Amino acid sequence: MSPEDFRRRCAAWFASSGCPAGSAPSRSRQPGEYVAAGRAHQRALADAGLVGITWPVEYGGLGLGPEYRQVFDEEAAGFETFSALFTIGIGMCGPVLLALGSEEQRRRLLPPLLRADEIWCQLFSEPGAGSDLAALSTSAVRDGEGWRLRGQKVWTTYAHHSDRGLLLARTDPDRPKHRGITMFVVDMAAPGVTTRPLRQATGDAEFNEVFLDDVAVGPDDVVGAVDDGWRAATLMLANERVALADSPIGSPVTLAAVVELARRHGRADDPIVRRGVADAYVAEQQVDLFARRIAREVRVGRDPGSLASIGKLAAGRLAKQIAALAHEIAGPDAVAWDPAEPDGDLWAYGELYAPSLSIAGGTEQIQRTVLGERVLGLPREPATDRDVPFRELRRSP
């Protein structure tokens, strides 16, 4: 099948699928409705043979080249593809399993992941290990041939809707903090797993804290080698940066909506507003063009590496820039609106939502450090604890 034939196939599917227009989740949907709609959408794509385009056929993919993925993305542009729901599973967990998982894990776990029969989450951050992820203290203690997990994770996106997750736990506290970590596959319905949604400033509850109380995992749940989980974590974080740079999660406040707001408020000819719109438009084009560059790198088999941090950093700043412009135009209406007005709360929601995009996937400070050290070649930040056994480190109680 040629790329042209594949394009016609994709275009025909989207034309007849009834997919809603727009790339951002509708705020009118309840979370459960969004997840159900996302599962149905992904299964329909799978039935049409349009998932896992570059993944091997034996794991549920199509085994096609990167140019076919580009064709699909071009045809999917402008439609809601539920990327927020599947970025972690398909964009991050799947590539790690493809690279480091055993043959048995790939055959067992990847096909249901692609079909959305199982939604996946990432169990990395902890109350005492966020930006310094290697400081994690969730433990995995040997129990016969398997392990017992004990600890707490936090900021776990969609954990309350997830079936499985990839988790980092400390398996050897006598080794330095980067070298005694192992990655596990965790069944989110296993005894001892407790998930509690966290209410955000917007009123949403996408994030969660997850408690692990003596959760049993088997030897077949280890991803990669025991005590070599930092390599798996680095691979996943690199895929996260690429996913966010390739397809940035946008704010619900779009530039087009802000332009329409300016027209309604009679400020379309205001030179200050016009300058703000022009600046935001330039920034938006830069983010879009850089995302295309990252996508091209990935699709031809090149790893963009730390360059992906540029796109992630720029997308977060753009969201805050557009939200601030909306508040400048709307004035008091941005924080006190007529309940009868459709989307009257959009501007307040966007202002509260935008900062999260500069935190998700690594804070702006972390991204700048990555770029400074790995792209510009600046000296590394001093680390006095790199070779100290984890159990000897001084940590907050």
From TrEMBL:
This protein's UniProt keywords: FAD, Flavoprotein, Oxidoreductase
Sequence ranges assigned to domain Acyl-CoA dehydrogenase/oxidase C-terminal in this UniProt record: 227-376
One of its Pfam families is: Acyl-CoA_dh_M
The protein's matches in InterPro entries, at most eight in alphabetical order, are given as:
Acyl-CoA_Oxase/DH_mid-dom (IPR006091), Acyl-CoA_Oxase/DH_mid-dom_sf (IPR046373), AcylCo_DH-like_C (IPR036250), AcylCo_DH/oxidase_C (IPR009075), AcylCoA_DH/ox_N (IPR013786), AcylCoA_DH/ox_N_sf (IPR037069), AcylCoA_DH/oxidase_NM_dom_sf (IPR009100), Mycobact_Acyl-CoA_DH (IPR052161)
Disordered: annotated span? 378-397
Q: Which domain of life is it from?
A: Bacteria
**Acyl-CoA dehydrogenase/oxidase N-terminal domain location:** 40-115
Compositionally biased tracts (Basic and acidic residues): 382-397
The Acyl-CoA oxidase/dehydrogenase middle domain extends over: 121-215
The prosthetic group or cofactor this protein requires is: FAD
Family the UniProt entry places it in: Belongs to the acyl-CoA dehydrogenase family.
User: What PANTHER family does the record tag this protein with?
Assistant: ACYL-COA DEHYDROGENASE, ACYL-COA DEHYDROGENASE FADE34
Q: What is this protein called?
A: Acyl-CoA dehydrogenase family protein
